[in-house]
Amino acid sequence: MEKTGIIVCGSKGRMGGAIISVIPDYDNLLFIGGVDSSYMQDETSETESKKAPAGKFLTLKEALHLTAGIKNKVIIDFTSKSASLIHIEEAALYNVPIVIGSTGFSESELKAVENYGKHIPVVLSGNMSLGINVLLNIVHDASKYLGANYDCEIIEMHHKKKKDAPSGTAKMLAGAVAKQRNIDLAEKAVYGRCGDVGEREKDEIGIFSVRAGDIIGEHKVIFAGNEEVIEISHKAISRNNFARGAIKAAAWLSGKNKGFYDMRDVLGLNKYE
């Protein structure tokens, strides 16, 4: 059986390293190489070739050009929203499927990514773990059965080097509640509170971010009524959890012609939309 080649963008980052470390666990996958703009700075001198060492590429375009002979390959991208928007354009140019785990996209940027699904297979998710994607359905159903009289607040915690806030996962969880309650999250989301902000308004969804230490990722959804409080939480123990989800998405995309998907498509979970 032909193996699927994997190119990892952001290969020197925390998630990129985790993905590369677990690829050997899969007999149907082959690590082609990593893409990271810091390779030349870190691993070559001014007198050396401008190309990074074998299997290490400065740009995705370079990686796709030099691996053109490998027909069955998928890109896994954990970089930044700006880099991912470049990478998905290059993936479409070379007709290669792409899995994107970057977060912080605006609505217009998300729409641009979705449109690429008309040309190549794309998986975009703010969280690749099975647990979080199951949790989305749980939170949606909890909101449904508890009703709008239960106030919803979300707390998310990540390591101090995470640049965007709130997390993509927190936005997904808030979106599940907003979807069920038929409200516009852009209008009802409250990102932190400070000063004399007045009483909590009806249908507010509070989202609060913590950045400290090396916290991998923790999310808590609170439904508070007048006489009880329900807390639903998820804690990531290892980045390998997300890495294996991304690899599962890459293997699932292999062989598909085109389409825009999320992790619940990959995992075969029922959608609440």
Task: Give structural notes.
The longest helix has 17 residues. The two termini are 37 Å apart. It is built from ten helices and twelve strands. It is of the alpha/beta class and 273 residues long. A seven-stranded parallel β-sheet has the order 3-2-1-4-5-6-12, with helices on both faces. Strands 8-9-7-10-11 form a five-stranded mixed β-sheet. It has two domains: 154 residues, Rossmann fold, CATH 3.40.50.720; 106 residues, Dihydrodipicolinate Reductase, domain 2. It is elongated.
Query: What is the radius of gyration computed over CA atoms, rounded to a whole number of angstroms?
Result: 20 Å
Q: What's the rounded overall pLDDT mean?
A: 91
Number of helical regions: 10
Counted up, domains total 2
Tally the beta strands.
12
What is the CATH T-level topology of the largest domain?
Rossmann fold
> Structural class, judged by helices and strands?
alpha/beta
- Would you identify the CATH H-level superfamily of the largest domain? NAD(P)-binding Rossmann-like Domain
Distance between the termini: 37 Å
Can you identify the CATH class of the largest domain? Alpha Beta
Which percent range fits the helix content? Answer: 25-40%
Secondary-structure arrangement, i.e. CATH architecture of the largest domain: 3-Layer(aba) Sandwich
Order of helices and strands: EHEHEHEHEHEHEHHEEEEHEH
